[in-house]
Amino acid sequence: MLLLRRCQSLTRFGPLKSQRHRVTPAVASCAVRLWSSSSDDQRSHQHAHSSSWRHGLAGLLAGTGAVLAYVLHHHKAQQADTSQTTDKTSSLPIFSQAEVTKHRSLEDGVWVTYKGSVYDITEFVTMHPGGDKILLAAGGALEPFWALYAVHNQEHVLEILSEYKVGELNAEDKKKQQAIKSSDPYSSDPERHPVLRINNLKPFNAEPPPEILSDSYITPSAFFFKRNHLPVPQVDPASYQLHVEGLPGGVLTLSLEDLKTRFPKHTVTATLQCAGNRRSEMNTVKLVKGLNWGIAAISNATWSGAKLRDVLQAAGYGPEVAQWARHVQFEGLDKDVTGTTYGASIPLNKAVTEEGDVLLAYEMNGQELPADHGFPVRVVVPGIVGARNVKWLGKIIISAEESSSHWQQNDYKGFSPGTDWDTVDFKSAPAIQELPIQSAITTPADGAVVDRSDEEVTVKGYAWSGGGREVVRVDVSLDGGKTWQVAQLRNSDKGQAPEPMPPPGRAWAWKLWEVTTPLPPEAQELEIICKAVDNSYNMQPDTVAPIWNLRGVLSNAWHRVKVKIREDECEE
Fold it and tell me: Pick from 407, 360, 357: which is nearest to 382 by CA?
């Protein structure tokens, strides 16, 4: 959690002009350059400065790629702008841990330690809103914070931190620090299936091999993609409580047993997809910041639980609430070291209409929710981006405003290909809710080889569209888009009866598709392409470049794989 990480690099205000053994000379403030290219309007500058710091702080607490990307961009830019160098080899003062611990307030100074070195961040804390959260680390070691946010424990972050170094711990206290092993907040995370392809270990993010997706219409929970933002919380189902706030009846508190016994149980088959699914393809155009998801950050399951609509009505929701309320906010029980929880929100209308099918789910694929998927209760918002399907649900708030969470306000938003980290304004774009039409080829894999003697090739994949729009067609080409054929769609496993057609606007689950076709006689390589069409005739764009964006979200261009044809060996 390098709250400090951007002591220098988040806002680029330059090293501290501390009077406490400051070794590093002050570098000119670059606050204006960070969020505004103009220094003429000081008031505008200060407003941008304050606002951007709050956004940056939330991102640092969350350990998110978006803010980390912004930080690194500006740190590198400033390195290019200055030729100043500092002699780091000069003798530094020696402090005891007791001396460091005295510096835990603005009056006494704010000091922290890392691996036996002492850092002074006083001036930074005084300059910025949100500094009170940084004080959590004051007078102590950074190691426990970085245990939570492993993404920050990297060379470039350490380099930035080094600019704040004011001294060393004495030898005795260094030994004590080394003897104390930082507790790992991820140590109680559940075991995961080894077949999963890990994109990030802490917090855990992984996807299954793509071919597994097309083997089963319902994705087994062990293979369902995992997207965690923070450590998996340990929740006792017997003492679990869900709080519903913001309605005329006051706060409604429900136990897990209440959800199971007071409200009818509903089951919905729904596909969840991460906003960053297929981000890796955007990286081939231009590098983006975020987890390098392949095509399998999407899965399909049956979810069972109480309808959110029923719970809200029990809590006092009525027509008068609809006159002022616009959003339903969710807060999870997963939290960072400051107590900040994961949060998101959806439009009120989606939550309260019968057709919205939003569940407070306590079962997945007929079993209790696995820990990675939100045990004991999660929100399932069919047709909506995975980021709004909050896991380990602890609180529901009816509000006139969207969630103020970092993940609602400063992440999971799409931008023009021309927007970069110098010009991005997260307030200018709406939070992603419904996702666009999507399809991908799960088999054969890119680079696979098929034998000429097989005479034909079978291509499989998935297709899905957000907002309950039903996929009505998938087109497949073996020659790079010159000719096309229509794939066969299915909404159940082979040998099983098809599921009933969903009502219009409630097609929450994906379609699996397949086509078997003869190998072209003269071809030595196939460029296989798929593209899907939904019942609103939304279609996928043909290339990635026009939809590229700096966060690598909403990646839904035609999916392409290349396959070699191996000719038969001549018999002697």
Answer: 357
**Active-site hit among 55, 70, 229, 274:** 274
Query: Catalytic: 373?
Result: no
- Do 8 and 75 meet the contact criterion of CB atoms below 8 Å apart? yes
Query: Is the N-terminal amide bond of 444 cis, ω within 30° of 0?
Result: yes
- How do the pLDDT tens digits run along the chain, 572 residues long? 333 333 333 333 333 333 334 333 333 233 322 333 333 343 333 333 343 433 343 344 343 444 444 444 555 555 544 444 444 445 889 999 999 988 888 888 888 888 888 988 777 666 554 455 556 678 887 766 665 555 455 566 677 677 778 999 998 888 877 665 557 889 899 999 989 999 999 999 999 999 999 999 999 999 999 999 999 999 999 999 999 999 987 899 999 999 999 999 999 999 999 999 999 999 999 999 899 999 999 999 999 999 999 999 999 998 899 999 999 999 999 998 888 999 999 999 999 999 999 999 999 999 999 999 999 999 999 999 999 999 999 999 999 999 999 999 999 999 999 999 999 999 999 999 999 999 999 999 999 999 999 999 999 999 999 999 999 999 999 999 999 999 999 999 988 899 889 999 999 999 999 999 999 998 999 999 999 999 999 999 999 999 999 999 999 999 999 999 999 765 44
Residue-wise DSSP of 125-149: HHHSTTHHHHGGGTTSBSHHHHHH-
- Report the candidate in 364, 397, 349 with the shortest Cα–Cα distance to residue 242: 397
Give CA torsion, residues 469, 473, 474, 477, to 10 deg: -150
**Residue from 227, 309, 327, 378 carrying the catalytic annotation:** 227
Active site residue 149: no
530 is catalytic: no
What's the gap between Cα 159 and its chain centre? 26
21, 167 Cβ separation under 8 angstroms: yes
**Helix, strand or coil, per DSSP, at residue 246:** coil
Are 126 and 118 in contact, with CB atoms under 8 Å apart?
Answer: no
Distance between CA atoms of residues 485 and 300, nearest Å: 26
Q: Which residues of 248-268 are buried (b: 16+ CB within 10 A; e: fewer)?
A: eeeebebbbebbbeebeebeb
Q: Beta-carbon neighbour count of residue 517 at 10 Å? A: 15
What φ, ψ does residue 157 adopt, rounded to 5°? -70, -40
Other Cβ atoms closer than 10 A to 475: 20
Active-site residue (options: 5, 33, 128, 506): 128
316: left (phi over 0), alpha (psi -120 to 50) or beta: left
pTM over 0.85: no
CA 325/CA 555 separation, integer angstroms: 32
The question of whether 240 is a catalytic residue gets the answer: no
Return all residues near 47 (Cβ < 8 A) that are at least 6 apart.
Answer: none
Annotation says 412 is catalytic: yes
**Residue from 152, 279, 388, 469 carrying the catalytic annotation:** 152
